[in-house]
Design goal:
heterodimer, A: 398 residues, alpha/beta, 3-stranded antiparallel beta sheet, 15 helices, globular, B: 550 residues, mainly alpha, 74% helix, 0% strand
Chain lengths: 398, 550
């Protein structure tokens, strides 16, 4: 029945939802005027919400595009929505125009043919993107191929309260020693939450002697041996975690509250600027600082993708392009606003724009790009899926 | 005849929606999922679902917490009414208590969590007395047996059951019973429990079933207060339904079928428990003891007093958090109050408030008319309407979303209102059922005997006499609509933002300041109609003594 619906819609003349060729940019801008773009993005971070509201104001002013932020509690809700629409044969005029996405959500949508594209490399501001220095053309090792457009870089840092921890903990071994000496003062978001799973991946990568294997899909043959050090590590710290490892915070930002409540002293974050912004908002004590691991921490890019049946493809592309503008990137990197790393290549910018980036204050708890050190690539998504499942079987069901 | 036809048509539409929703989950559970090109039926997904680590604990938790929460709420409600049986202040007390019903579950759960958590308000009092600066590392919230979940459910269900029970109370002829048992030397509580109690329970049985089904399949409260290693079954389902791996939705659908079975089993267990209780109660009644009920009544009163205090303080804590600057443990209050959160989030909250009120007003008014239609026109097949309360939302909503898409009416306010009706309508029928059926037929017979047209009898006699229950029902319907999250999100395609969708999205970030603000807004939106429901009857009936408690 669905095949029939698809065939039927293919025969229909494309009426109001014609998608403009992204390489004809002036036509894209022309057709975007007056469109309303529904951007489905996780709504759990209040600083990000403020940033998206600002983007909405700016694209309205410059391009006559209305941006509505649909605040999700989970990006997968948007995936469900697009699946539902495809099932129902609604191949145009869908409810979602833009999704903040990366990693396994992207991999499964791309796989199921639920995304519009390729468009990303035809955006005018793509020329400014640092495609050599930053991992913006693969997402968790999956080739992007223009089906999503980057807008921010993220890297794992650890937030710690200097009132309780005097020296940064710079290796997984140091963290384990500290956890054993200070039982009940560390935890991580419960996998399969993406940040909790990121902690597991960070342990896996940090303890692995051959990180190269992680860039390929996990196999039944190598999964056991590769993840053995990870489980030995988690086995050893779990009884010493907050609440004896029987209760976990459900999301990353929930850890901020735990630090403010003085329940824990150490927490993982995927945004080097999060701690500074949270201190400014009164969510964290001003004694919190961040640190990275000596051998490097995981980093990845945040992207926006357009569902294949978006009703405002042009408007969505205009927003994606605006997100890559020096103006938007500068604001996103400002630690008092968002503190997200830029995806732009400083050498491709005009001298004024470059100076503006140079002039940004880092903020009280943010490390400089040099201090952030080595960025490690994300493992293939299959590792993430398997270790999240495995963690739940081992520790999430007792 | 026309009325009956319309009533049946309503039921047919409702059941068609539910059935299509149910098929939308049965098919994937059996492996039929065209979007992934799966068309071969198989039991693999059901088998896989039952092999998930912790799934049996999750089932046990759902059953245990649901049954316990319902039993405690029921007992507390009955014994509390026994305690209040001879008090003229019963209705006043309820007026104060009714708004608690309107506090949305998630907001109440967050408030409660801040009260009882090891770093919460109560703990802070002790920390200040003892000079501690670190909260104790104790498992109180999210405990593995689900006791804090039960507490959270009970606190919210008691006001609902009380309201339902008080609406049905006049039909049990409490004054006559009172004269009878007093003259036979029973103390108030004992006499009430032996005469009114059983009648009243019979009349509020449906709301009790609704409470049970809700408690067994609740998601938001269970996420906030319930255990999470493993969680209850419904939370497990949402995890699978929200997995990035689309194929996991097949497992999620299979689990949803299991959830359906769990709901049915819990109802069966409950009916057995009812039989057991009836036998015990029968023995107690036959025994003829004149005392003995008082102690239970006291305990219930104390319990309700404490839980009301917890809930009130919890809601107050939300307001304080919305105004808080940095607020660390063990400070009892934030080190400074500021309007930052209100300035940052206030405007978008107001944007979400208007559609919330619009949807709630329309859906509760339409549901009121439809429930009158159903109650007068479709007596025998009425139970169909309750299916929407028995089926967990996560089970059939995606299927309904499909249907709405097919009809080309999704992502609009109209579609969201229609989806809300599915949940508002049964609660309203529930609220009106007892009073509607229990109305003394002699009033209408007299009117009919005087030659009044049946329609006028309905409008001039029945409706005015039902003004109290009607307003209570409207207020409940309004509150139910305000609190809907999943239907608004799935049917509205995210394009219809209400305070509840915003609140749940923001809650995932755990920032107590925003939660406080939205919890407060949600509460306010839902409490308002309760104020009217309480005020209006006493205004309308100010010159009819016999109707004051209607």
């Amino acid at each position: 029945m669905n095949k029939l619906a698809i065939a039927f819609s293919l025969c229909m003349p494309a009426l109001g939802y014609a998608q403009t060729d992204p390489s004809d940019w002036s036509a894209v801008v022309e057709n975007a005027k007056g469109q309303t773009v529904y951007w489905n993005a996780w709504g759990g971070s209040t600083t990000t919400n403020d940033f998206i509201a600002w983007v909405g104001k700016r694209v309205e002013e410059d391009f006559g595009v209305t941006l509505e932020h649909v605040k999700l509690s989970d990006t997968a809700d948007a995936v469900t929505r697009v699946i539902t629409e495809k099932e129902a044969g609604k191949n145009s005029g869908g409810a979602i125009d833009l999704i903040w996405i990366n990693g396994s959500n992207f991999a499964s949508m791309k796989d199921a043919g639920l995304l519009y594209g390729p468009f990303a490399e035809q955006l005018p501001n793509w020329d400014l993107v640092d495609t050599k220095g930053k991992t913006v053309q693969t997402d968790f090792t999956v080739p992007v191929e223009g089906y999503e457009s980057p807008w921010a870089m993220a890297q794992v840092v650890f937030m710690f309260d200097t009132a309780d921890i005097s020296e940064p903990l710079v290796s997984m071994e140091a963290i384990s020693e500290w956890v054993h000496a200070n039982p009940g003062r560390f935890t991580f978001p419960q996998p399969p939450d993406f940040l909790g799973t990121t902690f597991l991946k960070q342990v896996l990568v940090s303890l692995s002697d051959d990180p190269e294997r992680l860039s390929k899909p996990a196999t039944d043959d190598n999964y056991q041996s590769v993840t053995e050090p990870l489980w030995a590590y988690i086995d050893s710290i779990t009884p010493r975690l907050w609440r004896d490892g029987k209760v976990y915070p459900l999301t990353g930002p929930a850890q901020l509250q735990l630090i403010a409540d003085n329940e824990v002293d150490l927490a993982i974050s995927f945004s080097p600027g999060e701690a500074t912004a949270a201190i400014a908002n009164g969510q964290l004590p001003d004694t919190v600082r961040t640190s990275v691991l000596e051998r490097g921490t995981l980093g990845n890019a945040s992207f926006v993708a357009i569902p294949y049946n978006s009703s405002a493809t042009e408007g969505a592309m205009v927003v994606a392009n605006f997100l890559l503008s020096p103006e938007a990137q500068l604001r996103a990197q400002d630690p008092s606003i968002l503190g997200y790393g830029t995806v732009l290549d400083m050498d491709a910018l005009s001298p004024e724009d470059r100076a503006a980036f140079d002039d940004l204050e880092l903020g009280i708890a943010t490390l400089s790009p040099a201090e952030l050190g080595t960025v490690l690539p994300e493992p293939h998504p299959s590792w993430m899926t398997r270790i999240a499942e495995d963690w739940t079987a081992r520790y999430g069901a007792n | 005849m026309i009325l009956r036809g319309m009533a049946i048509a309503t039921l047919v539409i409702v059941s068609a929606l539910l059935l299509s929703g149910l098929f939308g989950v049965i098919l994937p559970a059996l492996g039929i999922f065209p979007v992934l090109d799966k068309t071969e039926p198989t039991f693999d997904h059901l088998r896989h679902a039952l092999a998930i680590p912790g799934v049996y604990q999750a089932i046990g938790l759902a059953l245990g917490t649901g049954l316990l929460a319902t039993a405690v709420s029921c007992a507390a409600t009955l014994f509390f009414l026994a305690y209040m049986s001879n008090s003229k202040r019963l209705s006043q007390l309820l007026n104060i208590g009714a708004p608690f019903l309107a506090v949305p579950h998630a907001a109440a759960a967050f408030g409660l969590a801040f009260m009882i958590s090891p770093s919460g308000w109560i703990s802070r009092i002790f920390a200040n007395l003892l000079g501690l600066d670190r909260p104790p590392d104790l498992i109180i919230l999210n405990d593995p047996f689900g006791f804090s979940l039960v507490l959270g459910l009970v606190i919210k269900e008691i006001p609902f059951l009380l309201l339902m029970a008080v609406a049905a109370l006049p039909q049990t002829n409490p004054q006559q019973a009172f004269k009878l048992y007093s003259s036979l030397g029973y103390d108030h509580a004992t006499g009430w429990l032996k005469t009114i109690g059983p009648q009243l329970y019979r009349r509020t049985r449906l709301p009790v079933f609704a409470v049970l089904c809700f408690s067994v399949s609740v998601v938001d409260v269970a996420i906030i207060l319930g255990p999470n290693t493993p969680p209850t079954l419904s939370v497990l389902i949402t995890r699978f339904m929200s997995s990035p791996d689309i194929a996991e939705r097949l497992t999620g659908s299979a689990l949803a079928l299991v959830q359906l079975a769990v709901v049915i089993v819990s109802l069966a267990i409950w009916i057995l428990l009812e039989k057991l209780a009836a036998r015990l109660l029968g023995k107690w009644i036959d025994g003829g003891a004149r005392q003995g009920g008082q102690a239970f009544a006291w305990i219930a009163a104390l319990f309700i007093l404490l839980s009301t205090a917890l809930l009130t303080l919890g809601v107050i804590s939300l307001i304080v958090w919305s105004l808080a600057g940095f607020w660390s443990y063990p400070d009892l209050l934030p080190n400074r109050l500021e309007s930052n959160s209100w300035l940052r989030f206030g405007p978008s909250m107001l944007d979400a408030l208007w559609p919330t009120l619009e949807i709630a007003t329309i859906s509760s008014l339409v549901a009121y008319l439809l429930s009158l239609l159903l109650l007068s026109g479709a007596k025998r097949i009425l139970p169909v309407i309750y299916l929407a309360l028995l089926l967990p939302q996560i089970v059939f909503l995606p299927g309904i979303a499909n249907l709405m898409l097919d009809l080309g009416m999704d992502a609009s306010i109209g579609a969201v209102i229609a989806a809300h009706l599915l949940f508002v309508l049964p609660y309203m029928v529930l609220a009106l059922h007892g009073p509607y059926r229990g109305l003394d037929p002699r009033y209408e017979s007299v009117a009919a005997g005087l030659g009044v047209h049946p329609f006028l009898v309905f409008v001039q006699v029945r409706l005015p006499m039902l003004i109290g229950p009607s307003l209570a029902a409207l207020a409940i319907g309004f509150a139910v609509s305000v609190a809907q999250y999943l239907p608004t999100l799935l049917i509205g395609g995210g394009r219809v933002a209400t305070v509840s969708t915003e609140a749940v999205a923001l809650a995932s970030g755990g920032d107590r300041r925003v939660l406080g603000l939205y919890g407060f807004a949600q509460t306010l939106a839902a409490v308002l109609p309760f104020g009217l429901a309480i005020l209006l009857p006493s205004l309308i009936w100010r010159n009819r003594r016999g109707m004051r408690n209607a």
